[in-house]
Amino acid sequence: MAVREAVAENASWCALVCGGGRFGPRAWTSRRRTPDYYPDAVTLDPRATAADVLPLVDDSPGCSIKDSFATLDLSVEGFAVLFDATWIACGPGVPEPGWQRHTEHGFPVDDSVVVLARGDDVVVAHRGSGVTGLSNFAAAAPAQRWPGAVAAVASAFPGAPVVGYEHGDALRAALGHGAEPLGPLRVWVR
Description:
- By secondary structure, this protein is of the alpha+beta class.
- It folds into two domains: 3-87, no CATH class; 89-179, no CATH class.
- It is 23% helix and 31% strand.
- The chain has four helices and eleven strands; from the N terminus they run H-E-E-E-H-E-E-E-E-E-E-H-E-H-E.
- Helix 3 (142-156) crosses helix 4 (168-176).
- The longest helix has 16 residues, at 3-18.
- The chain is globular and about 50 Å long.
């Protein structure tokens, strides 16, 4: 599994949630400010530079850039690191009964998106090109619920490897349940 597949899926997910944007050779960018928790740009190539991104976004305070390969230094442009994370290829998961499609959620609805819930636990599956992205995972006990969430996402789009990114305790839980690290990423904010 290559990190570029995870990056491409994530950028397409951001474009869907943010209502468009522009895909260039080195970055996806949005001229208008994106919703909370979504970046204004996602780098698509480790050779991306600030010049590939910043002229194409509203880089006023609050702007965030997902540096998909942790190769940029945006501190000279007035940005600070919001967090560092790791792209992952998720382990096989462990099926849990009770995960069901959830229709009241506020995410874009098309045939590439499935929102799944089990009680108060929620996870989003997004079909990209050859992979399925796992995102927006929320659970009261994430370390315990991770294997079931992965299996639910995998069952939403069978046959496609499940990818995503995590950091902190969520990353430790994912790695503890068989996720494979693919590479670093960094999110910058002004």
